[in-house]
Design brief:
With 473 residues, the chain is an all-alpha fold. It is built from 18 helices and no strands. The longest helix has 34 residues, at 107-140. It is globular and about 70 Å long.
Length: 473
């Protein structure tokens, strides 16, 4: 590991964490893109889900490709920074135009095509940022616990900004007007949020890149053996997935994020149509979700002492599953507070706080488990492939808004959930079907993820052995 980087200062952790703001804005968009395009713009929800899902096909190639190119980049800005800087313009532009389709984009065909183009561009650009950003974790430190702390800071910013955007959506942007009685149908609100999010993305990535620029000379450079090309690309990607632990953590992550993607895409439907919270109530409920991550660094630091990352990940996901699925199940069984009651509001207010932190415990632990693959791969191949390894994170996590949104769109189509329909106007039978398809499906997907992740074998002690073996070479 690079000399002098074994100890990471508080300033470095904050600088690294700041990049999470851009990711938070990007990820938050998937809470609203399905409802915006289907309910506000009138696109069939099945087509909207398909438009987002199409990007997954491209991600299967671009994520490992960008990881490979990042590993093999040589410049005075190092391996990672050229990609960080290059991501800003396409990410900001595609995010802005996602919410500002031109006036001539009307009807299912053009709306579908526009969403596909914006989605593909945005996903490729976020990969250009996230792959090198995550790759730097394994380069900055070989410490088992410090990697978790760096990722904790990144996801604190991600969660606070991402959930903070939801607060602003309901408190400021998605509000009723003289002409629009239901704030969820306020097109101008989505567009104003899109402009604000674009600015946050630009500032976040610029600050991240500039703040970490001083580490460029100290980060380890990959020694290329042979000419980079298709054969080297496929060899380096396949080498990453030869270990059982790599396959376990990646496929477990796919299960988690597909379930989470379905949850995210249906979140507005559940809170607005199923629970029938007003926009003002949702804005208040999201506040503890936005603030929950602030307490996470000291909590995560304490929980992780002496514990395995796999155990933390599984515990976090089990807890989040309970917080997420139990209320809906109890409502369908008739054992939960009625819509409009104070008891329902405060129950979901408290549940959201714990749910957010428990999801983050899984997310952070899972990503840190992947970072620890760097030493395993180097022992096997003699190469530092942090970029290819981190591309597994971006590919898997983006399954959330691809397969998850696709599945959500299909499910809404199956139950014939109406488009361009305000809260309170959807038949109760359809609302009950929404809860029935949401709860069991998400539970099964997440439970399969837990069973898969249990096969991960890089423990704290094994990781230390690998670090020592590499030091002796």
């Amino acid at each position: 590991m690079a000399k002098g980087l074994s100890e990471i200062t508080t300033g470095t952790r904050l600088a690294y964490g700041g990049g999470g703001a851009a990711y938070g804005v990007f990820y938050n968009s998937h809470y609203f893109v399905l409802v915006y395009y289907s309910q506000v713009l009138g696109l069939n929800p099945g087509l909207a889900g398909l438009a987002v899902g199409i990007g997954l096909i491209l991600d299967a190639v671009t994520d490992p490709l960008i990881g490979y190119l990042s590993d093999n980049t040589h410049s005075r800005w190092g391996r990672r920074h050229p990609w960080l800087i290059a991501s800003i313009a396409p990410l900001a532009a595609s995010f802005y135009f996602l919410w500002h389709p031109p006036s001539f984009v009307d009807g299912d065909t053009l709306l579908f095509a526009w969403l596909v183009i914006c989605n593909i561009t945005m996903r490729t650009a976020i990969t250009m940022f996230l792959v090198p950003a995550y790759a730097m974790v394994a380069e900055l430190t070989s410490s088992y616990d410090m990697r978790t702390r760096l990722l904790t800071n990144f996801h604190v910013f991600y969660a606070v900004i991402g959930n903070g955007m939801s607060v602003l959506m309901y408190a400021i942007w998605l509000v009723p007007t003289d002409d629009i009685s239901d704030g969820v149908m306020n097109a101008q609100g989505y567009q104003n949020a899109g402009l604000f999010g674009t600015i946050v993305i630009i500032v976040s990535i610029l600050l991240f890149s500039v703040s970490l620029r001083r580490f460029i000379p100290k980060l380890r450079q990959f020694e290329i053996k042979g000419t980079p090309g298709p054969r080297q690309f496929f060899r380096q990607v396949s080498d990453v997935f030869r270990t059982k632990s790599a396959r376990a953590v990646v496929f477990g992550g796919i299960g988690y994020y597909v379930g989470t993607g379905t949850y995210v895409a249906l979140w507005v439907y559940i809170y607005s149509y199923f629970w029938e919270f007003t926009n003002e109530q949702v804005a208040i409920i999201v506040i503890p979700m936005a603030l929950a991550a602030i307490i996470l660094p000291p909590v995560m630091k304490r929980w992780s002492i002496g514990r395995e990352k796999k155990s933390l990940a599984i515990a976090g996901l089990l807890g989040a599953m309970a917080m997420n699925i139990v209320p809906i199940t109890l409502r369908l069984l008739g054992f939960f507070p009625e819509n409009g009651s104070d008891a329902l509001f405060w129950t979901m207010f408290v549940a959201g706080f714990f749910e957010t932190n428990l999801f983050l415990v899984f997310d952070i632990s899972w990503r840190s488990m992947i970072a620890d693959l760097a030493e395993r791969i180097e022992l096997d191949t003699g190469r530092r492939n942090e970029g290819v390894i981190s591309s597994a994170i971006t590919f898997v996590s983006k399954c959330a808004d691809a397969l998850g949104t696709l599945l959500a769109g299909i499910l809404l189509t199956m139950i014939a959930f109406p488009t361009e329909t305000s809260v309170g106007e959807v038949p109760q039978s359809t609302i009950n079907q929404l809860g029935l398809i949401y709860g069991p499906i998400v539970f099964v997907i997440w439970f399969c993820a837990i069973l898969t992740i249990r096969r991960y074998r890089i423990s704290r002690s094994r990781h230390q052995e690998m670090v020592e073996q590499l030091a002796e070479r």
